Amino acid sequence: MPFSARDLRYHIEDSYPALCTYLQNRAQRYLGKLSFDAFEVDQVVGHVIEYLMRIQLLGGGQQAAPTALDELSDAQFYTFLNRMVQNKAIDRLRRRRLPMNTTGELEEQGNPDDENDPLNAMVEPLWGDIPFANPEDAALEAASQEQLRFILKKCIEALNVAPRQLQAIMQELTDLGASELVNEVRADLSAEQAEAPLPHLSQHKDHAHKKLRLCLQKNSTNLAVMVAIRLTEYGVQSGQTGDITVLLQTLTQTDLSLREVQTGLQHLAQAGLLDWHGEENVSISPAQQKGLTRFYEDE
Amino acid sequence: MSEQFMGKPDPQAQNTLLAQWLYGLLANKAQATTEGPLPVGEDVSFPGQGYHAAFYPQIPNFALALLRQSPNVITRYAPLFFHLLGCPVCHRAYLETYDALRTALADNTRPTTTTLRLSTTAGLATTSPKLLVFLCQLLIGQARTILRQAHREHSDEDAWARTLIQQAMQISRYLMQGTLRQRALRDLVEVASLAQPAQPEVPPTPPMLSYSLLVGAGSGARGRSAIRRADMAARPNEQVSIDLRAGSLEGNITQENDTLILRLVDLAADLRGHSLIISVPLGTLLEPVRWRGGNPYAIRSTGPVASDGTLTTPLGSTDLHLNEPIDRNLVETLFKKLDVRAAEE
Q1: Do B56 and A173 touch (CB under 8 A)?
Q2: Cα gap A286→B159, rounded to integer Å
Q3: pLDDT tens-digit readout, B273-291
């Protein structure tokens, strides 16, 4: 019985057996010499089932948010599952092979089994040409990309409520040579460079790091940046006071939900950049427009 | 920091230094050793520390947006992006997802011939019990994660968690071996209690006796139970019971027509002559039983405990039949826990 992503989401009782059969079939194919090892087959099958559960597709029903997999055609979804199985099988084969063979043995093994060895199907390294294939690439992107850097700056500035923690981070960034970022933060906060050394520096730094980690991974931070940009982009003049207004729906565009826009607006209101209490029309005074522009402008 | 990163030429030296700092800031040292997959056949209903329910489900959408080169994709997914820097488990899932999605999108004309080879008779009854146990535990573990996340975010996801728990209960009825079913639903009562906030109909006082389901083959009553089940098909008219135990006290549930009857024996002297309030904590999770009085948390016995310490009272009615193994398994799950209190006169 064929199944689709939708079946797995809404009809788990009917589709789970077919999913298991399909995954077992694929796993046995890709596991090569290990295809009769029930433990290895279970490892591969279990990995994909666990993945489908964790992305909240399997049994997710209407409560779980739709995922990219829901958008795939049935053929694409099968190809997706097939590839997941293949990658995991190769991972298992590598784990089993590497500790058990010397380099010489591996070279000798090459001839007779070349055609049947699933590892040979992988011409390129598994994750070689994927963007941000390692976290360090992503870190470089975060430090270089304007808006991500801007979010970082805003999170550092949010430490202002704990001046010693802010000072500890500024000191750390200065020592690092990130003077440009330090100067931007100082300019935004109109803060002077502290001259007195900070007692208990490492303790303040640890607390600041924890807050920064939370802030960077918090949805409201980046939503506030996106909404601030859209407010000034899509605002329409209303009257002679210079106020501009924007409808909530206008701010969603194609990629934000209404709830996300509201989260971003709440964040901006809490930062004192807006007077917004849930109205459909967001009204912004000229002074607030300046503040918003300053909020997201990087340079 | 890996050599790959250290050796990467970057004209913006300051960005490189900042990137190193950012990586050091976000990389969670506690997760340096990535967790392996949850093993099928072992207990998995407690997801590891590496599962971040706030981020993991976004990974496919992020990967698809990258593949489609959607505008502002990094900014749109900034929190996830920063999270991936420091979480090896989610980062690994991102890599797997991106690769599989890329293959799927590039291969959209391929016919689904593989599906034709699937057995048309595949059903839960013929699915490997190990994979059924695995699924039940994952569903219950997912419910626990969702409830904990909702608690942290001050939101209400009880309905979602209940749906997951109900699915686990429904699927577990196809596990014919009691010990496997017990294992599949090991954390059911605990997680279900998280999904059921304090309600006015729940008696405020702690129970005087708390019965648990007695399952599996072995000695004594458990052996009898297993024999009965094996013989069900041959002797359909024999009365089948669900056995309960609270310490040294025993009880059982039988069915007369469509009515479920609870029988408790050897109840303490101070309960004799008093009516009892029976609570079935999992009773609201599934609908097949119409509970007497309508509230499974407070079913009042039809009469007092007899002078010999015996109580026999109906609990409710159902269209399920205890003689049918799959029906019986589902009813049995409802009675994983049964609490008893003395009724106020």
Answers
A1: no
A2: 45
A3: 999 999 998 998 888 899 9
Which residues of A fall within a CB distance of 8 Å from B52?
A: none
**Interchain CB distance below 8 Å, A172 and B18:** no
Interface contact B17, partner A, CB < 8 A: yes
Segment B130-137 mean pLDDT = 95
Candidates B95, B87, B93; CA nearest to B31 is B87
Which of A74, A133, A181 is the closest to B18 by Cβ?
A: A181
- B101 or B284, higher pLDDT: B101
Evaluate if residue A97 carries a pLDDT over 90.
Answer: no
A26 chain-B contacts, CB cut-off 8 A = 114
pLDDT digits (tens, 9 = 90+) for A14-46: 999 999 999 999 999 999 889 999 999 999 999
Q: What is the pLDDT of residues A152-193, one digit of tens each?
A: 888 898 888 888 899 999 999 988 888 888 888 888 887 676
B268 min Cα distance to partner chain A (Å): 44
Are the C-beta atoms of A71 and B64 separated by less than 8 Å?
yes
Q: Using the 8-state DSSP alphabet, how is residue A193 labeled?
A: P
> From the CA of B302, how many Å to the nearest CA of chain A?
38
Judged by CB atoms closer than 8 Å, whether chains meet at A144 and B15 is answered as: yes
Q: Does B78 touch chain A (CB under 8 A)?
A: yes
Report the predicted TM-score, pTM, of the whole model to 2 decimal places: 0.79
Query: Comparing C-alpha atoms, which of A137, A60, A230 is closest to residue B8?
Result: A137
Residues 86-115 of B with CB under 8 A from A: 86, 88, 91, 93-96, 98-105, 107-112, 114-115
Q: Count CB atoms within 10 A of the CB of residue A1.
A: 15
- What is the spatial distance between Cα B175 and Cα B179, in angstroms, rounded to a whole number? 9
Cβ contact B37–A46 (<8 Å): yes
Tokens standing for A34? 């290990």
Classify residue B218 as left (phi > 0), alpha (psi -120 to 50) or beta.
left
Task: Answer whether A122 touches B (CB < 8 Å).
Answer: no
* 8 Å CB contact of A77 and B104: yes
Verify whether the Cβ–Cβ distance B107 to A12 is below 8 Å: no
Burial of B113 (0-12, 13-18, 19+ CB in 10 A): exposed
Q: Which of A265, A260, A290 is nearest to A277 (CA)?
A: A265
CA distance B313 to B276: 10
Q: What is the DSSP string of B7-45?
A: T---S-HHHHHHHHHHHHHH--GGGSS---PPPTTS--S
Alpha helices (H) in chain B, listed in sequence order: 3-6, 13-26, 59-67, 73-76, 78-86, 88-106, 113-116, 129-152, 158-172, 178-184, 188-195, 220-230, 325-334
C-alpha separations of B78 from A216, B3, B67 in Å: 8, 26, 16
